[in-house]
Amino acid sequence: MNLVRLTAAKAVANTALRWVPPFLPVLEKAFGATTGQMTTALGIGEMSGLSTFFVGKHLDRGRERVVMTMSLLAVAVSSLVSLVGTTFTFAIGFVLVVLGVANCTVAGHAYISHRVAYSQRARSIGLYETSWALALLVGAPIIAGLIALFGWRGPYIVLALAATAMAAMIWRSHEAARPATLTTDPSPTPGLAAITPAAWAVIVGSALLAMAGLSVFAISGSWLDEAFGVSTGGLGAVAMAFGAIELLASAGSAGFADRIGKFRGTMAGIILMASGQAAMAFANETLWIGVIGILLFLCGFEFAFVTSLSLVTEAMPAARGTTIAAANAVGTVARGTGTIASGWLFGVHGVEGTLTLSVIAAASAATAFMLSRRRRA
Fold first, then answer.
1. Shortest CA distance to 68 belongs to which of 159, 1, 167, 2?
2. What integer is the mean pLDDT of 291-300?
3. How far, in Å, CA of 3 to CA of 113, rounded?
């Protein structure tokens, strides 16, 4: 495997996951469901990321290629299940897509962290995580076009084929050997019980960042539709803008986080998130203020979260795979809880309710990172 193949495969998996929230109004109409019901399905689906608890030791034993291949096949199956066309099958499909994306993510992070020195790791992880942004920047206009031509089923068919192709590509690739200098401990992986309090603080901080970001992203399409009357084509354009901003943030993390320090970079991103949250809260019925606010928010979130991933990979050098897998699993609970709560808060209190949840999560994340700071920045 190499970084280009890894990123391409994850971009397809991320597209299967990320196209849903911006186009949620389309799926709500197709299934006859409410925003609250759909975000509940999204939140429940997020919980399948807990499966990464069980792959940590496999990643530490060098089985990243196997985990990534199986994950991409799960993404393909998720699209086929969702094609049945009910709220229930949509929920099952989303469980499977999160299962696939979560394990694909940790496999990629483990592959990189086992082969790239910490001093340069933010660059590699930042480039790998451009796949998150490419899912919207490239994927969103494709999804919008597929919906316009073939209806809501179009994206699921194309993504099933693409994920299968990516699984075949990864399986046929060859893994590079791990440098001996990065093999810090040849003994068996110590397991979850050995994760230190400082490492848990980093894990929790990253998870709370995910909650802060995903809670807002989950209702973004519904907010733009209800507050400003944005059409399906408009949602595709805004989602494309989301992707462009996130690509900028991921590239910024890749280019600058190693220089300014991972801790400082993460905190700077959280501050930018706060400015976006404020703009969204005061947008009222002014579309351009709302769009600028959510773009600032997503830029800060992407930069902070991607940078925090490097902190996670070095929180326990003797058990990187286990720590990365644990971080994703804890993040799964945070994302799932935040996604469920965001939909119901949005239904009762509007965007202000969701933003309150996001602000609390971001502030708590900053606190956790500060508590963990006895390691390198």
1. 167
2. 89
3. 12
Cα gap 173→65, rounded to integer Å: 8
Could you report the per-residue pLDDT of 205-221, keeping only the tens digit for each?
A: 999 999 999 888 888 87
Q: Which helix (H) or strand (E) holds 144?
A: helix 139-150
Mean pLDDT estimate for the chain = 84
Among candidate residues 43, 109, 81, the one with its CA nearest the CA of residue 336:
43
DSSP per-residue string spanning 101-141:
HHHHHHHHHHHHHTTS-HHHHHHHHHHHTHHHHHHHHTHHH
**DSSP for residue 21:** T
- pLDDT, mean of residues 243-256: 81
Query: How large is the average pLDDT for residues 88-93?
Result: 92
Dist CA 177 CA 164 (whole Å): 26
Two tokens, residue 94:
């989303």
Q: Using the predicted structure, report yes or no on whether residue 184 has a pLDDT greater than 70.
A: no
- The span from the CA of 318 to the CA of 184, in Å, is 6
**Are 59 and 235 a contacting pair, CB within 8 Å?**
no
Contacts with 183 (C-beta within 8 Å, 6 or more apart), sequence order: none
| Burial class for 341, CB neighbours closer than 10 Å (0-12, 13-18, 19+) | buried
